[in-house]
Amino acid sequence: MTNTRVRVPWPEGLHLRQAVRLVRTAQRFRAEIRLRSAERIADVRSLLGVLALCAAMGATLDLEATGEDEQEAIRTVQEFFGG
Predict the structure, then answer these.
(1) Nearest-angstrom CA–CA distance, 48 and 67
(2) Annotated catalytic residue: which of 2, 13, 15, 36?
(3) What digits encode the pLDDT tens for the residues 29-76?
(4) pTM to 2 decimal places
(5) Do 1 and 64 touch, CB atoms closer than 8 A?
(6) How many CA atoms are closer than 13 Å to the CA of 53, on its beta-carbon side?
(7) Which are the contacts of 71, defined by CB distance < 8 A and separation ≥ 6?
(8) Is 30 helix (H, G, I), strand (E, B) or coil?
(9) 70 and 61 in contact (C-beta within 8 Å)?
(10) Nearest Cα to 13, choosing from 41, 47, 55?
(11) Whether residue 29 lies in the annotated active site
(12) Per DSSP, what are the bridge partners of residue 4?
């Protein structure tokens, strides 16, 4: 399992358009990818789960991936968030 943190860089937060792009990005990998915000946990392949995080601009999210391509998945999702 690989863990890191990402910060939401968009003024509108993690809104619908960005969430759709994130889900599409995550679907390229076999690893399970999750985002955590306080007590909320979302499977990054779930659009409703990602939106339910209600992540505003500047929010810090814990990112974790488990699976055969977890390193590449983490790196790609970090790049998505601008890191």
Answers:
(1) 23
(2) 15
(3) 999 999 999 889 999 999 999 999 999 999 999 999 999 999 999 999
(4) 0.91
(5) yes
(6) 30
(7) 2, 65
(8) coil
(9) no
(10) 55
(11) no
(12) 63
